[in-house]
Amino acid sequence: MNFIFNEIVEYLMNKLVNKFKIKLGAKIILIFMTVVILISSSSSLISLFVDDNIDSKIDDISSKKIEIIWEDSQFMPRHEECIDDSNGQDLPEYGIGYEPSISITSNGNMFITAHKDLRWGGESNPFFPVLGGEPGPWYACQSGQQTSWDYWASWLWASFDNGTTWVHGDGFEPTPGNSFTANYIAGGSECLGDEGDISVDSEDNVYYLDTTLEDNWWHILSSNGTEYDTVTCQRMNTMAADDRPWVAAQGEGIIHYLGNSGVSPLECTGDVGRYWYYHSEDAGLTFTQCYAVPGGWSTIASQKHGPYVYIAQEDADTASGSIVIRISDDYGRGTGLTDGSWADPKDVGERKGNCPEGYPVVNTNEIGTVAVVWSDCPNGGTGAWEMRLALSYDYGLNWTTWDITHMNGIHMYPFVSISDDNTLAIAFYGIDFDDDELEGDYAEGEKWYAYAAAIKEPKEGDLWNFKIIDPEPLHIVTAYEEIEGDTHALHDFFETVISEDGSWMGIAYQVNIGIHPFEENEEQRYIKFVKGKLLI
Predict the structure, then answer these.
(1) Where does the pLDDT of residue 354 fall: very low under 50, low under 70, confident under 90, or very high at 90 and above?
(2) Are 327 and 339 in contact (CB under 8 A)?
(3) Of the four listed, 85, 319, 418, 437, which is most buried by Cβ atoms within 10 Å?
(4) DSSP, residue by residue, 462-524
């Protein structure tokens, strides 16, 4: 009963605060008034503040919310032989990176990749006119060369004990030396890369794509990701340029690759689009080509065993508009000269103001549940953001969409995971404008945190009880960031997973600690992991 009472208070508070934009100074009085109303008033008086179906709302709150017990977080490690106390890191034993991706196999093995720091591969680099520094190669695992790299490929960490400990993936050993001597015949960590993505098919083969911007390398690890199977650096040979890669795997060796080409060339159907879709049915040996997906920023997800594939995207590279979903019910087949099995895009929600960072994120499960989550910025990039969820329980045929904004503040990079028992977990990077006495909203000293919550079989209007997952702030807003309106300190995204049995979830995320030795107004970026037990 105590739990339900507290939840009712929270529900009423959120309704009033969100509707009337009540600030911190009035909240104490509001809490007192709310408690008095709950104790002394009839249900008809309460209904002045909330929906008429308050009884069903209470039932939903008490039965669906899932408490999450978070373990201590962990930093991702460097190879012991590559640790250099003089390379400028505050924490030299841990990996420097950002924008982490995470995937999980059926037995709970997990894999994390992250964008390497291209300006921290030594004092020199081959792209010095753009990146700064001195002309010359990058360095890896080389004492005295001021490098944060262990090897040429982007980071690949692995856990084989459900997240208790982390090591480097099989085939990703140190490559001491300079980048001009990288051995591309050897594969694995010798394949020079920039950033990647990971997915797992129904046979528990792990597919790791690492982009070079000009093209991509494929790495395949079989047996729940324990054995590296790619003999040499396996080039993908894409038609368009490649920036942020998104990968989805399904069935036995079916791979979907969605690549950000930036400015798209004309493709075979006559369309142009920021993202190009590539399809493989032979575990990445060959891919279909020449198919753009018209619209703005996009992500992709597929069932592992079933035939459905989904692309969520902004309808256009515009300041406002809608979020759309593209659906294939036949493994994404048939693209090239036609749209193949991909249906026309379906509108699932509005965009009232493009946020300076982030993507609409889609995910799905084996029983037809599909979710899309995104941030909206009607008040500009440094004003209060909103967060929306679109949800379908019938393979994308019908949708409900609602506002799941948690607080007066920033909700950046929301990510959704779905278990096969329809537990949805959503996480985001956030700043609460009302949790301190700082003047203004996006101000120097504001603290970024990672938030997460989970609900079993959510329905429209359900409240998400978002909580901070790590008591240490991920980043603290600087004077420069306040002046410039720069919200990019945590870069472009992070990801979550849920275990096969739905009993726990994992999050890979970024934290900034210390000043970057080579970039002005930038920080040292580290990757962490945290595991949470889902009390269903």
Answers:
(1) confident
(2) no
(3) 418
(4) PPP--EES-SS-SEE--HHHHHHT---TT-S--EEEE-TTSSEEEEEEEEEEEE-SSSTT-EE
